[in-house]
Amino acid sequence: MIHDRRRLSDLLPRRRSLWIVFLLLPAAAIMSVFVAWPLLSAFRLAFYRFDGLTPSDFVGLENFRQVLTESPFSDWTWNALHHNVIVFCALMVLENGTALLLAFALLKALPGHRVHQVIVFLPVVLSSVIVGFLWKLFLHPLFGLVNQALALVGLHGPAWLGQESTALGSIILANVWHWLGFPTLVLLAGMQRISKEVIEAARLDGAGDGTLLLKIIWPLLAPSVTIVTILTFIGSFNWFELPYIMAGLTGSPGGSTDVLGLYFYRTAFGSTTTGIQDFGQGSALAVLMFLLIAGVTAIALRMLRRREVEL
């Protein structure tokens, strides 16, 4: 009897391990085929010169040198990188700053706050393609809702997506509308983890909303802020769908909306206007984007986690 129980106790961990492997195997296979293999292929192809669709000669770091130092490729690379930096800074201020205020308002549990949580998060579930086409209609210079609303107050709206000075900002605005709900709920969840006794004690000491948010809640939100900041950075430097839908593959007008994602795709697969296609340079850009995102993310995580406070 005791021997049978021992055998059963030995078999249960093995069966559990096999069951876990069985459950993880499909996901691991998908990740290997669609993520790991393309990534490793990009690393390999970045060191070759291409003859059409076929790698021909091993050129070492030549593709990297061209996209970083040789004109006009380097001009396009740094221009796209500059726009990605602008997008990140704008989203940190506009999207995450607004999300912080909305989360604080929802924390107060005013009447209807649960409905407002759903309304705030609703645009997040929409496809980026739908959001892109929707905002192209909103920003249309002739019959768009934005210019019609401005006309009601006597203002003449510009061609938002047709001018270099307003095109990138218009796409950023659409992105803020699309993703605002995500950082709002992440920050709200972080606020709800803060002890109510801490907030009540600050209220009893006479702290107003501004003091409470900046002096009490903000330092205790460090884990949530780390998540939001890292995801905003990764999303900003992987930006592709909205610029592609709203401004096109060439980052029109005049390259004012060009970002690294568009430049990489245009270089690797060509476009109807440029006709340039170079898998070697495209793979080099993909590798550089991966190294940039991975490197900055690792450094940022290390720095942000130093200020995290145990709740």
TrEMBL record:
InterPro entries: MetI-like, MetI-like_sf, UgpAE/MalFG_permease. The chain crosses the membrane at residues 20-40, 85-107, 119-138, 167-191, 212-234, 284-304. Pfam families: BPD_transp_1 (PF00528). Residues 81-300 form the ABC transmembrane type-1 domain. Signal peptide: none annotated. Keywords: Cell membrane, Membrane, Transmembrane, Transmembrane helix, Transport. It is a multi-pass membrane protein. It is found in: Cell membrane. Its main location: membrane. It comes from the Bacteria. Belongs to the binding-protein-dependent transport system permease family. PANTHER family: BLL4140 PROTEIN, DIACETYLCHITOBIOSE UPTAKE SYSTEM PERMEASE PROTEIN DASB. This is Raffinose/stachyose/melibiose transport system permease protein.
